[in-house]
Specification:
7-stranded mixed beta sheet, metal ion binding, Beta Polymerase, domain 2, about 475 residues, elongated, single chain, two-stranded antiparallel sheet, about 10% strand, RNA binding
């Protein structure tokens, strides 16, 4: 291997300091992994820097921190043999070079001290195994035993060692391979792809939290469909997201077919990714049709139907989040809401858009109405240019209507113009169902456009409604 020096990559003063400190301690040090990979990919300057020491990474971290301005704190993780320093805008992680061996039922390795070669052997992919020397005598020397540079050039994900061993030892690497292929728009080399398919069942020993972390990164990529196609191709998808996998396939009865909702969903996710970086809105796009698999029915007169698939899908969101140990909080409720309402603007765009229907949409969607419209616009996947133009124009009409109605009627995050206390005082009532009936009647009258969303008109309406309910205003008693 020819000796190539890349001092430009490590021109930041921190690298020389680490190298000089290493020499003082009698150890060697190298920057390795993502920092080196991203330098050669010209992806900007990463702020996360992994330093491997041939010796104690923790001792090297302590010594480096003592020389830095402000003497930053060293966070030590003894179980992992690592130490972390946060300095300015950098996060430096130090670890001693090691070799690893694995038990069949765990991804937690038995770790021993090792050489740089041992440490590079244990790396997940060739493009993450490249190292740059920080030692004064060979500062900037690239050590690339597995031709990672060549794989970068060929846009290829490849394991340093036999892929079956790499993936079986730590099955999370299967998801990482797919994630890197998605983020970098690389291909996974055929032998490696086959090994993922052969080892797919091993994913079951990985914690749900780690799997979700990789799913998030796939979803936040420029074109998430790459990752989900690879998960489908390797057989990982039904093990991780069976609800999504169940959408795959087309049935035909009596010459009537429905579209393949799996491939449609991937188009929707790619579409929405062009317009939002919100991972939870991207989750909503991924899950917006999951209710179609359990609700699919064929009727001779009308063909295929998916009645109430939005409602069923929103219930499935909770089960999916719970199974994957994702947050069961406002994030989950947002995804549920988007799935539940995903067809509402579509129905509006197909019919004559009435102010009343728009008011109800804005009332129900609240502060998420813009997100809902973004989701529905992403749902346009027709390849017919005329239809696509028509649907997009219709959605523009709906958006304009929303703006007009919102400016006039202030329905978003609706607050009743007449409070329960006012109703109680007006009719000398104690807390009772009559108050709820009157409040609901006021809300309906506003949504239907019978009265404006203003206090005086709503108060007058309240008095009339009370009269019909045989309630007497306090002043008449």
């Amino acid at each position: 291997m020819t000796q190539e020096f890349h001092k430009k990559a490590i021109q930041h003063p921190i690298f020389k300091l680490i190298g000089d400190t290493s020499k003082e301690l009698g150890v060697e040090s190298y920057v390795i992994g993502g920092f080196v990979r991203d330098y050669f990919l010209k992806r900007g300057t990463p702020k996360d820097i992994d330093v491997v020491a041939i010796g104690s990474g923790i001792e090297l971290a302590k010594k480096v921190a003592s020389k830095l301005k402000g003497k930053p704190q060293v966070s030590i993780f003894k179980n992992f043999g690592t130490a972390m320093i946060k300095h300015q805008d950098l996060e430096l992680e130090f670890v001693g070079a090691r070799k690893e061996s694995y038990h069949r039922d765990s991804r937690k390795p038995v770790v021993e001290d090792g050489s740089l070669e041992d440490d590079q052997n244990r790396r997940d992919f060739t493009i993450n195994a490249m190292a740059l020397a920080l030692n004064p005598e060979n500062f900037g020397l690239l050590l690339d035993p597995f031709d990672g540079l060549d794989d970068l050039d060929k846009k290829r994900i490849k394991t340093p060692l036999e892929p079956n061993i790499t993936y079986s030892d730590d099955p999370l690497r299967m998801m990482r391979a797919i994630r890197f292929a998605t983020q970098l728009d690389f291909t996974i080399e055929p032998k490696s792809l086959t090994a993922i398919a052969e080892n797919k069942e091993r994913i079951k020993i990985i914690s749900k939290e780690r799997i979700v972390d990789e799913l998030h990164k796939i979803l936040l990529s420029k074109k998430p469909s790459i990752g989900f196609k690879l998960m489908h191709q390797t057989g990982l998808l039904p093990l991780i997201l069976p609800e999504l996998h169940a959408l795959q396939g087309i049935e035909e009865i009596e010459g009537q077919r429905h579209k393949d909702n799996f491939w449609h969903t991937l188009e929707v996710v790619d579409n929405i990714s062009e317009n939002t970086d919100d991972v939870w809105l991207r989750w909503a796009a991924l899950l917006h049709d999951i209710g179609k698999a359990p609700t699919k029915r064929f009727h001779k007169k009308i063909g295929w139907t998916f009645h109430a698939h939005e409602f069923v899908g929103s219930k499935m969101v909770f089960k999916l989040f719970k199974r994957l140990r994702m947050p069961l909080n406002d994030k989950m409720k947002f995804v549920q809401k988007m799935v539940l309402m995903s067809s509402r603007p579509i129905i509006l765009s197909e019919d004559h858009v009435t102010d009343s229907a728009v008011r109800r949409l804005v009332f129900d969607a609240g502060e998420n109405v813009d997100d809902l419209m973004t989701l529905c616009e992403a749902d346009i996947t027709t390849k017919n240019p005329k239809k696509q133009k028509k649907y997009k124009n219709n959605f523009q009409i709906v958006r304009q209507k929303i703006k007009e109605v919102e400016e006039r009627d202030h329905i978003r995050n609706f607050q009743p113009p007449v409070s329960g206390e006012e109703i109680m005082k007006a009719f000398n009532l104690r807390p009772s169902k009559e108050i709820g009936i009157i409040k609901e009647a006021i809300k309906e009258a506003i949504l239907e456009g019978e009265i404006p969303n203003e206090h005086d008109e709503a108060y007058q309406f309240m008095l009339e409604k009370g009269k019909k309910m045989n309630l007497k205003p306090e002043s008449n008693k």
